[in-house]
Specification:
This protein has 544 residues and is α+β, with helices and mostly antiparallel strands. The protein has 18 helices and 17 strands. The strands form four sheets. Strands 12-14-13-16-17-15 form a six-stranded antiparallel beta sheet, with helices on both faces.
């Protein structure tokens, strides 16, 4: 099934959950088997009582908007509420308990570049701070309004979703940057193309959000991370328009201006258009899962597959705890997998002959490491389960919360010699952080994106929720801080795919160095000398 079959809805759709993930008509309940598993390790969950949307909107209304009227801006309480939160566990805590703190003063809905420029000029005139918003799927606090005496305007690109041009000869497509994943893929697929960028947030996240947070899709091994797909575009800044050309395939003419936009997280301006490198729709895709005897064997095989450049479109290696936990909680095939074994998921994309060749190469590498991949029935069953749930597994967060359990994730990337050590460090840090509160934690890790040089390390934490706001927030903040400190101390990047936002901003200095941070601030000052985009994303606190 092509991912475009997923039904995406933007932030403003009435059916999208205001205090959880996704479409409120879709449920992923926790099975009795999974509940027994969670209770045995973590203890019985006690779900907190959720706040009511009407009551929360009434609290928003008490925060009177500081913005003067504007034809493109709404101060509707529910619109302001939805625009002020993403999908981090901290966001969930505030929404579920109704402890909303600071809310944006208004939400603008531009439909063109001219609208964006007019809004940026207006914000500068009235002294407002502007925060761009795409699909509101951030898990690192991008949308949180800064504590400031200045009014805050959230600029939503939800109405900017047009396909502006498609150059089949050059394999380039230009979109307005507010287009979300399913709509983008549907428009390309009509003409036989794909972008091939499928993050787990694909159903709701936007093209502009992918670019400005340096996103990585599930099949980036074939299509590339977003930085290799982004050919050029238009950035509307407070001091004028920056147009980055896409009229050549490569250039040696000095530094690449695209790098100023990639990962800029709304600090330089608003990305309004993006030209992307697209690919023909593949003839065939096959996903398979292979059970390997242990982590050492699995890591060696994953490294060999990457370094031999077999051409997989996707590779994901789950450690023993993740293998057991996800198979049991998710109800996938292979529940009787022996403890200590690991699950390697692989994607093969291309023509039938290409897929056959890649599968033969992969099988040879797996067998050369003493592992068995001959059980075709199990391999296909595991692959189908992954494919069917690739954008649905995140709905389990809603089901777990309703049973009194929370989920958070942290991710990084390191070179191969440090992969296993980083995995163990993150898992230990997470367990230690919550044991401070007398709580057990189920912690597990997978390698979600694998490179010849190294790999991402993506860790999940499952724990009991507290029944009150203060305890819940204290636990989460301590977990986040402890694990983030462990990552940077062990030499990992603070983010491989989630971005920096406000939550990771305090830890960016270690990676970029003081001189590098000064350079980033200088670029921000060039495009935004008056702090119109001073959201505190990326660089932390700035001029207020």
């Amino acid at each position: 099934m092509h991912p475009v079959a997923a039904c995406g809805k933007n932030l403003w759709d009435a059916m999208r959950r205001w205090n959880g993930w996704g479409d409120d008509t879709i449920d992923h309940p926790v099975s009795e088997n999974a509940l027994e598993f969670l209770t045995a390790i973590l203890g019985k969950g006690a779900p907190p009582k959720d706040a009511d949307l009407t009551q929360v909107c009434a609290a928003v209304d008490l925060q009177k908007s500081r913005l003067p009227p504007h034809s493109l801006v709404t101060t509707n309480p529910e619109a302001r509420l939805r625009a002020s939160f993403g999908q981090s566990y901290g966001d969930w805590i505030r929404l579920r308990f109704g402890e909303i703190d600071r809310i944006t003063d208004g939400v603008a809905f531009p439909e063109s570049n001219d609208d964006i420029r007019a809004l940026l000029e207006w914000a500068g005139e009235i002294g407002a701070i502007v925060i761009p918003c795409g699909g509101a799927t951030s898990v690192v606090g991008h949308l949180t309004p800064p504590a400031s005496n200045r009014p805050v305007l959230t600029l939503s690109t939800a109405r900017m979703s047009k396909l502006l041009s498609l150059d089949a000869l050059s394999q380039l497509a230009t979109f307005q940057a507010g287009v979300c994943g399913p709509e983008l893929e549907a428009k390309l697929r009509e003409q036989g193309w794909t972008l091939g960028h499928f993050p787990q947030s694909f159903e709701y996240s936007s093209l502009g959000g992918w670019i400005t947070t340096r996103s990585s899709g599930q099949q980036s091994s074939r299509y590339g991370r977003i930085e290799s797909l982004f050919a050029g575009g238009v950035l509307e800044t407070p001091t004028g328009q920056l147009r980055i050309p896409h009229s050549f395939p490569a250039s040696a003419a000095g530094p690449d201006l695209r790098e100023w936009v990639l990962g800029s997280e709304g600090r330089l301006g608003v990305l309004s258009e993006a030209t992307m490198r697209i690919s023909r729709l593949p003839e065939q895709e096959v996903f398979i899962g292979v059970i390997l005897p242990d982590w050492s064997c699995g890591e060696a095989i994953a490294r060999a597959l990457a370094q031999n450049r077999v051409g997989l479109s996707m590779m994901r290696l789950s450690n023993p705890i993740e293998t057991q936990t996800t198979l049991r909680i998710g109800g996938h095939a292979g529940e009787n997998t022996p403890f200590g074994a690991v699950l390697l998921m692989m994607g093969f994309t291309g023509s039938p002959s290409q897929i056959d060749a890649m599968r033969n190469l992969a099988a040879g590498i797996i067998q050369s490491h003493g592992a068995d991949c001959s059980n075709e029935k199990t391999a296909i069953a595991l692959g189908k389960a992954w494919e069917e749930n690739r954008f649905r597994g995140v709905y389990l967060r809603n089901g777990l919360w309703s049973q009194g359990y929370g989920v958070d994730t942290m991710e990084t990337a390191v070179n191969w010699p440090n992969v296993e050590g980083m995995m163990n460090t993150i898992e230990s840090a997470g367990r230690d952080a919550l044991s401070t509160f007398g709580e057990n934690t189920i912690v597990y890790t997978h390698l979600s994106h694998v490179y010849p040089q190294g790999s991402s390390v993506y860790t999940t934490f499952i724990f009991r929720t507290a029944t009150d706001f203060e305890t819940s927030m204290s636990r989460w903040r301590h977990l986040k801080k402890t694990v983030s400190e462990a990552i940077v101390e062990q030499g990992g990047t603070i983010s491989h795919q989630h971005g920096v936002g406000k939550d990771h901003a305090p830890f960016l200095l270690v990676e970029k160095t003081a001189r590098g941070m000064d350079a980033l601030q200088s670029i921000v000052n060039h495009f935004d000398p008056n702090g119109v985009m001073a959201s505190n994303n990326l660089l932390g606190s700035t001029k207020q």
